Amino acid sequence: MISLNENKNFNRLNYKITKKSSHINKIFLVLIFILIYCSDSYSQKKPVIDFDSCTFNGIQLYGKIKFVDSFPDIKVQIVDSFPDLKVKIVDSFPDECGKWKIVDSYPDIKVKIVDSFPDIKIKFVESFPGKP
Question: What phi and psi, each to the nearest 5 degrees, are found at residue 31?
Fold first, then answer.
């Protein structure tokens, strides 16, 4: 049989363990919340192209284009499937979404072609440029 004094000691010990457990649970929940928040903010998100104005972050996606190696306005990756924008190379009147005229001077946009971490992915097409 357990005496009353032993029972009080057991209750005190149980209270201390429970109190420590609740602190550990709170810390654990805060850490889980931080991990979920950080993983969401660092996940790759699909680029947002405004097809009404044909812009990406305020940069127009049509016009005279110059390919550069440094200080680009936008970085693109050339893909065969699932592009963000379909591009047609034209000789004149690059005035619609996805129509690019390649120039050496006075470009509207400077573009760098990259293999990884692009701003947008493009596919070169012969017809129907613009929204995929």
Answer: -65, -40
Rounded distance between C-alpha atoms, residue 113 and residue 73, angstroms:
11
Whether 123 contacts 88, CB under 8 Å: no
d(CA 60, CA 110): 11
Instruction: Compute the distance between CA of residue 50 and CA of residue 57 in angstroms, rounded to an integer.
Output: 8
What pTM was computed for the model?
0.66
CB atoms closer than 10 angstroms to residue 107: 17
**What confidence tens digit (pLDDT) does each residue in 57-81 have?**
999 999 999 999 999 999 999 999 9
- The C-alpha atoms of residue 1 and residue 77 are separated, in whole angstroms, by 78
DSSP assignment string, 42-98? HS-----EETTTTEETTEESSEEEEE-SSS-SEEEEE-SSS-SEEEEE-SS---STT
Q: In which region does residue 129 sit, left (phi positive, over 0), alpha (psi from -120 to 50) or beta (all else)?
A: beta
Scanning the chain, the segments in alpha helix (DSSP H) are: 4-42
Cα distances (angstroms) measured from residue 93 to each of 68, 72, 102, 110? 22, 23, 12, 18
